[in-house]
Design a protein that fits this description.
There is one protein chain. By secondary structure, the chain is α/β, with parallel strands linked by helices. It has one domain (about 5-300): Vaccinia Virus protein VP39 (Rossmann fold), CATH 3.40.50.150. The protein has nine helices and 15 strands. It has helices at about 5-10, 20-25, 50-60, 80-90, 110-115, 130-140, 175-185, 225-235, 265-270; strands at about 35-40, 40-45, 70, 75, 100, 120-125, 145-150, 160-170, 190-200, 210, 225, 240-250, 270, 275-280, 285-295. Helix 2 (about 20-25) runs parallel beside helix 6 (about 130-140). The longest helix has 14 residues, at about 130-140. The two termini are about 35 Å apart.
Length: about 300
């Protein structure tokens, strides 16, 4: 696969009619001295025109992952992404590692990962909107994060392999989850690891929920496995170790409607009479976080 040619083609996406106004916002951002802190809220302290900054950030809606605070503008994103990040944080150390984030959105997680001093951070996401949000934030942060308008299907053809790959909230969007797990496997260096997050259903059986048309009003959810079924998928993909790190129930305090998104959020995706079920009658979203190891010599940590 010729990634150089593909990059040139996808760069043209940034000139789509609906994306051009976003790029104009970024091109006209102020150049100011800033102080950046990477806590639960990524804060960018600087003296700037707050009214203009607020208007600019609004042009880049919807903001899904965050939150961010730039000057006095607080971008209250749909997801309180620090909840997931803080849940995973005790389970990894990225110092001097080559790291990829698949489906990186606006790179909130990668901005947080900078504190670990990885050798390289590469985000994969084929979204001109999220790439524009990243460019907006990175205008002030000035990180060395590499943002690729590529998907997981391009990972195995990338110019280098990775020590750690994060794949958070992507697997259930794929109609062939084992094929995607194989793509993650092939994107790793010999001693690499994957930190994976996906929906799951309760049960010991080797089975998966296959939603008829949508799950939590999301149409492109294909399979929601039991943890046992997920483990089998991962072993079929070639991984030698499957370690459950955490499980969690997605709550309205973590995902909710704010002025920074358009449309509905989790509260509207659940049965109004029974929050343990989706509006379709399926079990409400629960997530499992696992570590996958490629090489058996790296399986014991």
């Amino acid at each position: 696969m010729d990634l150089k040619k593909l990059r040139i083609e996808r760069e043209k996406w940034m000139k789509w009619k609906n994306i051009v106004p976003l790029r104009e916002v970024i091109d006209n951002l102020e150049v100011v001295d800033v102080k950046v802190s990477f806590g639960d809220v990524i804060k960018i302290d600087a003296m700037m025109d707050d009214r203009k900054l607020y208007r600019d950030a609004k042009v880049l809606m919807p903001w899904r992952k965050g939150p961010f605070k730039i000057g006095n503008t607080y971008i209250d994103t749909e997801w309180q992404s620090h909840i997931k990040y803080n849940l995973l944080r005790p389970h990894f150390n990225l110092k001097e590692k080559r790291v990829a984030d698949i489906g990186c959105n606006n790179a909130y997680y990668m901005f947080r990962m900078l504190e670990d001093e990885p050798t390289k951070l590469v985000g994969f996401d084929p979204s001109p909107l999220y790439k524009s949000q990243f460019d907006f934030i990175n205008h002030f942060v000035k990180s060395d994060i590499v943002y690729e308008l590529l998907g997981v299907e391009h990972l195995e053809f990338y110019e280098e392999k990775f020590d750690t790959i994060f794949c958070l909230g992507v697997l259930y969007h794929r109609s062939d989850p084992v094929a995607m797990l194989k793509q993650l496997y092939r994107g790793l260096d010999k001693k690499g690891e994957v930190i994976l997050d996906t929906f799951y259903i309760e049960g010991e059986e080797e089975m998966a929920l296959c939603p008829k048309s949508s799950y939590s009003k999301i149409p492109n959810i294909y399979f929601v496995p039991t943890i046992t079924a997920l483990k089998n998928w991962c072993f079929r993909a070639g991984f030698v170790s499957f370690e459950v790190l955490e499980t969690s129930i997605t709550k309205i305090s973590e995902q909710r409607k704010t002025e920074w998104i358009e449309g509905e959020s989790l509260a509207e995706f659940l049965d109004p009479e029974d929050s343990t079920k989706t509006v379709e009658g399926y079990p409400a979203p629960q997530r499992v976080y696992v570590r996958l190891i490629k090489d058996k010599n790296n399986a014991k940590r």
